[in-house]
Amino acid sequence: MGDLEDDTAVERVGDGRYRAHVSADWALVGPVGGYLASIALRAAGAHASLPRPASISCQYLSRARFDAVDIEVVDRHTSRSAQSLAVEVTQHGRLVLTAQVWAVAEGIAGPEHRLSHPPPVPPPEQMAEIVLDPAVANRIATTATATGRFWRNLELRWVADHSRPEGLQIHSWVKFRPRAYFKDPWVDACREVISIDTGILPAVAWALPGGARFVAPSIDLYVAFHEPPPPEDYLLVTARGTAAGAGLLSGTAETRSLDGTLRASGGSQLLCRMLQA
């Protein structure tokens, strides 16, 4: 089991340069894309002069190994309210990921109005914890993907019956283990990055005809952070599949706090390849 704060920690090794280690505790087939994006986000947070993240947009350029990575962060623009940071993650001289991160100041005056309403789902204490088994694995692309070490880091409470997904939409309560939330807003935002990233593929896969086996690595990911979540154990994650065709899969996802407030939203495109029977 991995600790999210420890496993995304970065060490400053120079001006705008950082180093981190990709932990095998966050493995599916390889390192989870949202976990790699979280390392980039932590490096941006270490470099930023403003206190909280507003968004991250990243592209996955090559597969990372469970080893050290080098990170370079460049300040592209800074004002009193917002800061733009460019991040490059390399491993053994090979570019693994690029990201654009926005940071913002506290106390920015603006409208306060709830534009999105939560789905009518039961609270987490009324839902049974889900333990992934081979039957579920077959609905999440491949057994290797579904049973990777990554899932030990999460407590999952799915709202809908996994054999009868609600159209292209899946709701789940997610709690990270061993620590459920974090005081540092840059660390806590990693919960949302990972939850949004890993919620999209199942939402697409379960809507497809049974028996299809494929691999679908992410080629990009975007997450917008609307409000810092309160210190609560659970996030409600709603994921939706939007398209499958021409070798691509896509979807969107969002996270909410216990009171239904929208905390983050995002989307991803995945490159799909069918596996031989």
TrEMBL record:
Query: What Gene3D superfamilies does the record tag this protein with?
Result: Acyl-CoA thioesterase, double hotdog domain
> Where do the Acyl-CoA thioesterase-like N-terminal HotDog domain residues begin and end?
24-103
For this protein, the record's SUPFAM superfamilies field holds:
Thioesterase/thiol ester dehydrase-isomerase
Protein name, as recorded: Acyl-CoA thioesterase-like N-terminal HotDog domain-containing protein
Q: Which organism is it from?
A: Actinoplanes nipponensis
| InterPro entries reported in the protein's UniProt record | Acyl-CoA_hotdog, HotDog_dom_sf, Sec_Metab_Biosynth-Assoc, TesB_ACOT8-like_N
